[in-house]
Amino acid sequence: MKCIFIFWLAVVLFTITSCSKLKEKDKFAKASAPNIIFLIGDGMGLSQISTAYYFGDEKSNFSRFRNIGFHRSSDLKYKVTDSAAGATAFAIGQKTYRRAIGVSIDSIPQENILEFLQKENYKTGVVTMTSITGATPAAFYAHAVHRDMNEDIATYLVDADIDLVIGGGRQYFNKRKDGKNLILSLIEKGYLVDTLELSKPDFNRQNVYLLADDNMPSRIAERGDMFAKATRTALDYFEQSPKPYFLMIEGAFIDWAGHGNDAEMLVEEVEDFDKTLGILIDFVEKHPNTLLVVTADHETGGASLAKKYHDTEVFGRKKLIPDEIELSFNSKEHTATLIPVFAKGPGAEDFQGIYENNDIYHKLISVYQANKNK
Ligand code: MG
Ligand code: ZN
Questions:
Q1: Fold of domain 61-302+333-371
Q2: CA of 290: how far to CAs of 34, 35, 163, 273, 357, in Å?
Q3: 83 an active-site residue?
Q4: What distance in angstroms lies between residue 82's CA and the mean position of ligand 2's atoms?
Q5: pLDDT, tens digit, 9 for 90 and up, residues 181-221
Q6: Which of 74, 83, 131, 218 is catalytic?
Q7: How many CB atoms sit inside 10 A of residue 269's CB?
């Protein structure tokens, strides 16, 4: 009798310990789904990044990556893409037509990575220095047949259930043709909305910052360190999150410098981007379960770092300035050059090689799939 009792006791104890082990494993499974930070430098090709190595004062943070690849940025119809098709390829995993926001080539809305990860219990964030309805951020939460449909895109943001939003574009929420005030709609949904300044976020709520009527200032002289501050605010917010998170951050104005063939602005914007990149890499090094992927949607301006010549001609020829280079441009538009991709964190090695822009979506999803149950 005693023997049988001991046997049953052993069975019960075994069951209890294996159950609690299972629970522990379950807990660990949730904790191991990787955080994903996706940083896009609009218009940032290899020459743009190279300026950090020739014109910058400090060592570039790009040197801190070991896993580097390239993507081909072309859209489905044309070799030279735009920011809408470029961001949409990252967001939905399909190449599409220029101007498309989160829709396929036949204009049908497709689930984006943010929506997919929300269903997998992720928190989400979108940060930009342009209007939040701009093509790059919009591709991550909206579905529109044309990028210029700012007011429709704003409507998507109200229902997108994003936990932290920082950007401009206030007018598409409160000065609309349909007379609706979407800022009130956001407040009704429980959002903390700040339309004036980058105040401290409420960690227990969802927060939206709409800090300009349209875009924030495109020049550092007026914008100051707003990009770094917005990035820090987002990192502080998600650092408190018990859930994993997906955060998209856009540095928007390298593209503008390219369109304007403005060398001085380009160098400044890459410097600003590099500084923010440093903040992100420091964060990822402290939080190793975070994948950071940095790339651009396309290059802008056909920028190159060529030999520098004196402006004046001597005997019909311009004289070379020895060992000096200058940033020159061969286009006012986007180009088709391959775009560097930098990755750090779990699954970073998947981003080595040369692939299509929409493959980045599939790589992000597969890093999630591979790590979520580890
Ligand atoms: Mg953009
Ligand atoms: Zn552009």
A1: Alkaline Phosphatase, subunit A (3.40.720)
A2: 5, 4, 18, 19, 21
A3: yes
A4: 6
A5: 999 999 999 999 999 999 999 999 999 999 999 999 999 99
A6: 83
A7: 31
